[in-house]
Amino acid sequence: MAARESVMGKRGWINLGLLALVAVLALIALRDPGREKRPGLQPLTPLDPQRIERIHIANHNGPAFLLERRDREWWMSEPHQVAANTPRIEILLDIASTPSFEHFALPRERLDEFELLTPKAELQLDDTTLIFGGTHPYNYRRYVRIGDTLHLINDHFPHHFLAQAEDFVSHELLGGEARISAIRTPDWSIARTAQGWELTPPRPGLPQERLVAKAEAWRHTLAAKVVKAPPPGSTEWVDLSLEQQPRPLRFEVIREPRHLLLVRRDLGIAYRLPSDSTLLAPPGD
Fold first, then answer.
1. Which part of the chain is the DUF4340 domain (predicted)?
2. Which of 46, 133, 202, 259 has its CA 20 to 30 A from that of 227?
3. 283 preceded by a cis bond (ω within 30 of 0)
4. What pLDDT, in 10s, does the model give residues 113-146?
5. Residue 73 to residue 196: CA distance in whole angstroms
6. What distance in Å separates the CA atoms of residue 260 and residue 144, rounded to the nearest whole number?
7. Residue 47, Cβ neighbours under 10 Å: how many?
8. Distance in angstroms (rounded) separating the CA atoms of residues 20 and 10
9. How much is the pTM?
């Protein structure tokens, strides 16, 4: 009998706990500014990601930057004029059609509550502006203001709208269609001639395949990361001559303990490679 009463007592406490939990959840729902849910889920914007032509991002982590679609590829127009990271941009554009889990009229007197007095970032997709605030205290979804409406979306995109301009630069040293005609360094050079590639200073017996492989390595190398160009501090350089371009591309070489930087001063960026990269070694080494 005592054991039964003990079990009944435990069940009573469990039931009381469940009732308390329900009461807390009800209180949260009443206090939640987005409690008026709509049937079904609508996309955050009516935009088709495949038709967006212009992206402007401003945040507190660096200068604002502008991305523009050119045919099937994306380019950065500001602050650097360079090919952009098209695959990353396509991921970012998913935000246009991401579900809006809740949306309601923006309570202008409560902007600070949603961290919209000083927004985290502003993303403009063509003529539609998305302003990012903080996250919901319980479900951790992100507040996004569009005009006079406040939305709650899954927080999958902060590493994109909080990124720096350099994060959206293509990791390719050269465009995919570039054809190298010469590579020159202070210590060695190779150049394409009618008879094939020639190495200076010459290395008798070195097969043509080694020279071709060096040119192809430069053509296909991808940087691990693109960063803002550091201050000048090196006299080492590499010049790449490309077909149908009147001037060679100059890369300033900066060697760091853990990285090798190939700096494009004309673009204001640097391509970061592993410190053990063999890209600068003479063909055959």
1. 74-203
2. 133
3. no
4. 999 999 999 999 999 999 999 999 999 999 999 9
5. 33
6. 39
7. 17
8. 15
9. 0.81
